[in-house]
Amino acid sequence: MRHRLKDVAERAGVSVKTVSNVVNGHVHVRPDTRARVEEAIVELNYRPNLSARHLRKGRTGVIALAVPELDIPYFAELARHVVSAAAEHAWTVLIDQTGGRRDQERVLASGITDHLIDGLILSPLALTAADLAGLDGTPMVLLGERIEHCPADRVVIDNVAAAREITSHLIQLGHRRIAAIGAQRTDEGASARLRLAGYRDALRAAGLDHDQDLVASAPAWHRADGAAAMRGLLTCGVRPDAVFCFNDTLALGALRALHEAGLRVPEDMAVAGFDDIEDGRFATPTLSTVAPDKEQVARLAVELLANRLEGDPTVSARELRAPYRLELRESTRTR
Predict the structure, then answer these.
(1) CA triplet 279, 284, 290: central angle to 5 degrees?
(2) Nearest C-alpha neighbor of 289 from the set 254, 334, 245
(3) 3-class DSSP string for the chain
(4) pLDDT of residue 280
(5) Is there a domain that residue 55 lies in?
(6) Could you list the residue range(s) of the whole structural domain that residue 102 is in?
(7) Do the domain assignments include residue 39?
(8) For residue 173, what is the domain's CATH number?
(9) What is the pLDDT of residue 133?
């Protein structure tokens, strides 16, 4: 049997309004009254009807998180944090993947279908500022720096600074032929371009030449792409002594290729990644990486969306920056 506010009110000897005030966290309730209501809630195992509450506000209580690929561990870990942050608002999260396709990103940014979701957190690869300017209605927060002059709220990390910092770490260890894996020349490769820029900045600051032969492209950022790129670097004629991979899955693939080639990490070649996925902490050797604060990325995105839902929809778009740190492990440190 599902109990109602009225049942709690009768058990506690108070009005339905008083029970509603307690359930909704209003402060103007006497401590002894609040205690009686809370005791009645426990005794009756009362659970608020969130669906009814959302409907009274003209909402569904559902938001969407859309990412390019669910099998990229970074996005899976990020999704977990988004679900946790959304739960604090009693929101359910609908998770979808776009494949980085512009048509799919536009469908999601349009709200999927009328009244299905209250808002959207989207990590776009193909969407443009012009696409967003033509959309109306669905509150939205973007993740990443894909869109310049972004007309929507977004959460970013400083990809250039982070890539510069991890590359500088490799330089400080004495490496001089530092390769990069993950370059992309498509419109969708915004993160790749930013991380390549940071990599080049670090080389330039150290007075090291930029050798294009040491920059390996990767059509996708999967383990197989990292392994293939690493094999290509080993046969390019100028063997690197370190490699910065633009995400951790590329780095895990590179580690496999180095193992197959009989090379030791970090003694023969240091390897660094980006994202700090859990797999990297259990690789052999453990992976040095840039660690974006994924929990903070999720929390900032959810709070921006909440502010947009509760506040003035005409307020100018905001950009919030989440922190990162370097996690330096065995793959760059000689044991």
Answers:
(1) 50
(2) 245
(3) CCCCHHHHHHHHCCCHHHHHHHHCCCCCCCHHHHHHHHHHHHHHCCCCCHHHHHHHCCCCCEEEEEECCCCCHHHHHHHHHHHHHHHCCCCEEEEEECCCCHHHHHHHHCCCCCCCCCEEEECCCCCCHHHHHCCCCCCEEEECCCCCCCCCEEEECCHHHHHHHHHHHHHHCCCCCEEEEEECCCCCCHHHHHHHHHHHHHHHHCCCCCCHHHEEECCCCCHHHHHHHHHHHHCCCCCCCEEEECCHHHHHHHHHHHHHCCCCCCCCCEEEEECCCHHHHCCCCCCEEEEECHHHHHHHHHHHHHHHHHCCCCCCCCEEECCEEEECCCCCCCC
(4) 97
(5) no
(6) 60-157+294-324
(7) yes
(8) 3.40.50.2300
(9) 75
Residues sharing a CB contact under 8 Å with residue 242, sequence separation 6 or more, in sequence order: 170, 173, 175, 177, 178, 179, 266, 269, 270, 271, 272, 332
Residues 28 and 80 in one domain: no
Tell me, what's the pLDDT at 249? 98
**Claim to verify: residue 152 and residue 186 sit in the same structural domain:** no
- Residue entry with tokens 């660094």: 272
Q: What is the pTM of this model?
A: 0.81
Find tokens 């339905």 and name the residue: 16
How many residues are given for the chain?
335
Dihedral, CA of residue 131, residue 132, residue 136 and residue 140, to nearest 10: 140
Successive 10-residue mean pLDDT values, the chain, 335 residues: 78 85 73 86 72 55 93 95 92 91 80 73 87 75 85 94 98 97 88 96 96 95 98 92 98 98 97 98 97 97 93 82 97 78
pLDDT of residue 145: 86
Examine residue 333 and state whether it is found in any structural domain, yes or no.
no
Please list, in sequence order, all residues whose beta carbon lies within 8 angstroms of the beta carbon of residue 77, skipping any fewer than 6 positions away.
277, 278, 294
For tokens 């990644």, name the residue: 273
What are 37-41's contacts with CB under 8 Å, separation 24+?
Answer: 37/8, 37/12, 39/12, 40/8, 40/11, 40/12, 41/8
